[in-house]
Amino acid sequence: MTMHERSGGELRATLLPTSTHTLHTPPTHTPPRTHALRSATTHTPRITSTPPAAQPAAAQPAAAQPAAAQPAAAQPAAAAVANGDADHLDALGRRLVTAARAEGLTDVLYRMLDTPLGGVLVAATERGLVRVAFDTEGTEQVLETLAARIGARILFAPGSFEETSRQLDQYFTGRRREFSLGLDRRLSTGFRRTVQVALPELPYGTTVSYGRLAATVGNPRAVRAVGTACATNPLPIVVPCHRVIRSDGRLGGYVGGEQAKSRLIELERSFA
How is this protein annotated for GO cellular component (predicted)? Predict the structure, then answer.
């Protein structure tokens, strides 16, 4: 048993021997129960000095976890596209194009194709292929010209032009020497169209001078006009204006750039 006593202003604790006498301490010395409860009450603020109400607030971030899991819900859609739903979207696009054309709601369809010379835009009307354009020409400018010259109802049709794509692939791999696509020549008129119509008659893998072509179309003095007709050819590659060069052997101008013209000439010579 420990007894506390004050000595010299200090509180000392003395361990007293345990005896059976302490078991018979008169009940009058036991503090009343109400006093004990009152004492406990006075010490309660020390135990609960940290407000219990603050604990649920600390747990609130855990409640936000379901919201963080929301991005996972978007994964199936992204994975579906990555796993082949792009083909399904192409099919839907083709049906849209077919329906639009059946209702007469389009003037021009177009899409982009990859080639060894870079991306090219191909565009067509109901009459046939109307435009082949290199990246260097600027897609927006090409489309604006088509809207002004053909019609403003222009539809991007990525699932179309299968035959055009197939023939271009055959050409660049040496399996095709001339194209058999329907053509819409409305973007060329007069003498320019006359020259451009004659271009596919030039033998594959060969070149001729502007002067020689001028003579072939019946106007040998129209060398510059022939050069302009080749430079403004709306259907390069398919209509082979790259086979026409200067009389001194230099390449001359080309809508896709001199490098593209050189590569087309070399390509044909390698397979001729």
Answer: cytoplasm
